C-alpha cells in the first residue's frame, strides 16, 4: 500500500517578493496494493506533483509518503526509483539508444547480466505486442503509439511492484489510446502491479481505475470511489461537472434506425454508438 | 616574375622546409602545438562551466555577455598587454589564445547540454540514473557533437591568431609573417599565409569528421527525419 499522509508541496514564487505557490495542500489518501488508482483532475490540480512524490522526483514540503509502512524519505532515492516504474506523456526514451537498450536500462542498472536483460527485453516486447524486429530500431523511427509501448515496456522491464503513469496516453490518437488502455488493463491483471495513473480525461479514468480520486485545485480530494459509485453517487457539484453528467449537451438520446437497431445520438443528433442489451 | 609566381617558388623551395633553412615543418608543428595547448586549457575551463550552466539552465545571460564581449576583444591588444605584464615568451600569447578560445567552447557546451530534451533527462533520472550516470550516458553522448563543434571553431580561431605568438618572440608560423613584413619579403609573407590557411582547412575537415562520428546513430536518424519532414512540409 502507498499512503500519502497530509502531504503539502509549495514552490517559491516566480519573483522573490511573490508569495509561494501551493501545488498540493494537506492531501491524504491510500493506494491499495495490486490495484489501479487513477488521480484525475484538471491541469494544475497537483496530480502530477502527487505522483512524483512516490519516486521522490518531488519532495513534499511537509507530510510523508509511505510504501508498505516505510517512510520513503529515509530511502535512497536512486535505489527507490530503480524499483518503481515510471511512464510519462512524452515517452522520454534515450534517443541514442535502441528500443532494446532503452528497455534494458533498469534491469542493467539493477545489475542484470546482458543475457538476463535480453530475456527481459524479449518478454516485454511480447507483452506490449511489439514485434521482435523493433528491438534494434531507434526512438526516432517509432510512431507515437509505438514509443509509448516501449515506454511502458521500459517501466515494467524489471518487474516493479509499483508503476507510476503520468498521462501516458495523452499524446497518441484515440484509436491507439483505446488499444493501449486495454493492454494496460491486461498487463495489470497478469502482473498484479500497483498502478498510480494520472489523467485529465474522465473517460480514461472510468475505463482504467479500480479506484478514482478526483482532485480540485491544490490536490483537494473531491471524491475517492470506484468508477461505478462515482457515476452513480457523485459527492458534489464539482464531481458532477467533471463527469459532465448534468451538462445538457452531454445528454444522450436514442433513435431507431432503418434496420431496427437502437442508435444513441448526442444533443446535436450525431451518432455516438448503438445500444445493446447488457 | 610576379608575386604569385614568387610565392609559389618560395613555398616549393626545399630551403623553406629543410631543417637548416626556414624549417617550416618544425614551425608548423610548433604552431599546431600552441593551438592545441591553448584549446586544451580553454576546454578544461569552459566545458565544466558550460555543462553546469546548460544543466541548470541558468546564467544563459552570462554566456551571451561573455561571447559578445569576447568578439570585441582585440587579441593583439591582449598579447601586448600580457607581454608587457609578463615579459617575452610563450605565456602571454598563450593566455590571450586561451581567452580567445573559451567563448565558443563555453557557448557550444551550453547549447549542447541545454538542447537535450527535458523529458529525456527527467525519464533518465526517474529510472534511477545517478548524476554521474546521467552525465556519462546522457549528457556526454547527446552533447558531444556540439562540444566538438565548439572545439572546432575555437581551434580554427586560435590557429589563425596564433601567429601573434611570434609578435612576442615565441615562434610558430607567425615568425614568417612578421619576418616577411619587416624585410618586405612579400613571397614569404604570402607563402606563410597560404600555408596557414591550408593547415586551417585540414584541421577543419578533421574536426568535421570527428563531429560526424560524435553524433550518435539514433540522433543522426532523428535529424534525418526532422529535416526530411521539414523539407516535405
Describe, in plain words, how this protein is organized in 3D:
- Chain A has ten helices and 13 strands.
- Chain A is an alpha/beta fold and 278 residues long.
- Chain A has a six-stranded mixed beta sheet, with helices on both faces. In chain A, strands 2-1-4-5 form a four-stranded antiparallel beta sheet, with helices on one face.
- In chain A, strand 7, helix 7 and strand 8 form a beta-alpha-beta unit.
- In chain A, helix 5 crosses helix 6.
- Chain A starts with a strand and ends with a strand.
- The model of chain A has no long low-confidence stretch (mean pLDDT 91).
- Chain B contains eleven helices and no strands.
- The mean pLDDT of chain B is 88.
- The chains are: A alpha/beta (278), B mainly alpha (233).
- At the A-B interface, helix 2 and helix 4 of A face helix 7, helix 8 and helix 11 of B.
The CATH superfamily name of chain B is MetI-like
Number of strands of chain A: 13
Q: Summarize the helix and strand pattern of chain B as letters.
A: HHHHHHHHHHH
Oligomer: heterodimer
Taken as a percent bin, the fraction of beta residues of chain A is: 25-35%
Radius of gyration of chain B: 21 Å
CATH architectural designation of the largest domain in chain A: 3-Layer(aba) Sandwich
Number of helices of chain A: 10
Largest sheet features of chain A: 6 strands, mixed
- For the record, give the distance between the C-alpha atoms at the N and C termini of chain A, rounded to a whole number: 34 Å
CATH class of chain B: Mainly Alpha
Distance from N terminus to C terminus of chain B (CA atoms, Å) equals 57 Å
Tertiary shape of chain A: globular
Radius of gyration of chain A: 21 Å
Number of domain modules of chain B: 1
Helix residue percentage of chain A? 25-40%
Mean pLDDT of chain A: 91
Class by SSE composition of chain B: mainly alpha
For this structure, the CATH topology of chain B is MetI-like fold
Name of the CATH first level of the largest domain in chain A? Alpha Beta
Amino acid at each position: 500500500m502507498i499512503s500519502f499522509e497530509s502531504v503539502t508541496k509549495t514552490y517559491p514564487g516566480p519573483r522573490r517578493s511573490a508569495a509561494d505557490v501551493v501545488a498540493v495542500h494537506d492531501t491524504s489518501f491510500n493506494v491499495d496494493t495490486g490495484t489501479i488508482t487513477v488521480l484525475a483532475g484538471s491541469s494544475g490540480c497537483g496530480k502530477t506533483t502527487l505522483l512524483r512524490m512516490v519516486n521522490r522526483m518531488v519532495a513534499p514540503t511537509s507530510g510523508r509518503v509511505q510504501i508498505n509502512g516505510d517512510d520513503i524519505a529515509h530511502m535512497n532515492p536512486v535505489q527507490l526509483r530503480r524499483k518503481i516504474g515510471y511512464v510519462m506523456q512524452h515517452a522520454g526514451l534515450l534517443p541514442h539508444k535502441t528500443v532494446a537498450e532503452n528497455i534494458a536500462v533498469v534491469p542493467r542498472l539493477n545489475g542484470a547480466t546482458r543475457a538476463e536483460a535480453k530475456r527481459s527485453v524479449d518478454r516485454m516486447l511480447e507483452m506490449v505486442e511489439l514485434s521482435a524486429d523493433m528491438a534494434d530500431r531507434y526512438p526516432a523511427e517509432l510512431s507515437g503509439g509505438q514509443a509509448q509501448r516501449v515506454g511502458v515496456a521500459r517501466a515494467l522491464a524489471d518487474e516493479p511492484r509499483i508503476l507510476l503513469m503520468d498521462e501516458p496516453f495523452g499524446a497518441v490518437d484515440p484509436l491507439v489510446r483505446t488499444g493501449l488502455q486495454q493492454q494496460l488493463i491486461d498487463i495489470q491483471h497478469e502482473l498484479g502491479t500497483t498502478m498510480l495513473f494520472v489523467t485529465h480525461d474522465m473517460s480514461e479514468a472510468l475505463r482504467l481505475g479500480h479506484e478514482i480520486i478526483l482532485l480540485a485545485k491544490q490536490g483537494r480530494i473531491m471524491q475517492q470511489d470506484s468508477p461505478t459509485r462515482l457515476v452513480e453517487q457523485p459527492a458534489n457539484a464539482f464531481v458532477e461537472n467533471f463527469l459532465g453528467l448534468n451538462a445538457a449537451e452531454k445528454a444522450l438520446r436514442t433513435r431507431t434506425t432503418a434496420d431496427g437497431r437502437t442508435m444513441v445520438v448526442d444533443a446535436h443528433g450525431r451518432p455516438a454508438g448503438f445500444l445493446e442489451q447488457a | 616574375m610576379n608575386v604569385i609566381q614568387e610565392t609559389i617558388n618560395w613555398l616549393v623551395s626545399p630551403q623553406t622546409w629543410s631543417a637548416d633553412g626556414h624549417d617550416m615543418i618544425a614551425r608548423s608543428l610548433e604552431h599546431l602545438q600552441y593551438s592545441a595547448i591553448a584549446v586544451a586549457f580553454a576546454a578544461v575551463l569552459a566545458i565544466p562551466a558550460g555543462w553546469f550552466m546548460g544543466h541548470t539552465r541558468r546564467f544563459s545571460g552570462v554566456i551571451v555577455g561573455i561571447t559578445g564581449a569576447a568578439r570585441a576583444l582585440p587579441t593583439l591588444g591582449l598579447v601586448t598587454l600580457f607581454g608587457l605584464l609578463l615579459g617575452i615568451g610563450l605565456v602571454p600569447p598563450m593566455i590571450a589564445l586561451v581567452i580567445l578560445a573559451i567563448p565558443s567552447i563555453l557557448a557550444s557546451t551550453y547549447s549542447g547540454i541545454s538542447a537535450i530534451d527535458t523529458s529525456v533527462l527527467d525519464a533518465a533520472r526517474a529510472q534511477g540514473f545517478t548524476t554521474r550516470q546521467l552525465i556519462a550516458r546522457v549528457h556526454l553522448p547527446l552533447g558531444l557533437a556540439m562540444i566538438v563543434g565548439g572545439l572546432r571553431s575555437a581551434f580554427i580561431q586560435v590557429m589563425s591568431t596564433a601567429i601573434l605568438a611570434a609578435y612576442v618572440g615565441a615562434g610558430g608560423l607567425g615568425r614568417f609573417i612578421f619576418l616577411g613584413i619587416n624585410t618586405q619579403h612579400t613571397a614569404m609573407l604570402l607563402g606563410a599565409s597560404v600555408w596557414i590557411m591550408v593547415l586551417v582547412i585540414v584541421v577543419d575537415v578533421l574536426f568535421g569528421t570527428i563531429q560526424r562520428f560524435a553524433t550518435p546513430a539514433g540522433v543522426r536518424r532523428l535529424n534525418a527525419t526532422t529535416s526530411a519532414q521539414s523539407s516535405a512540409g
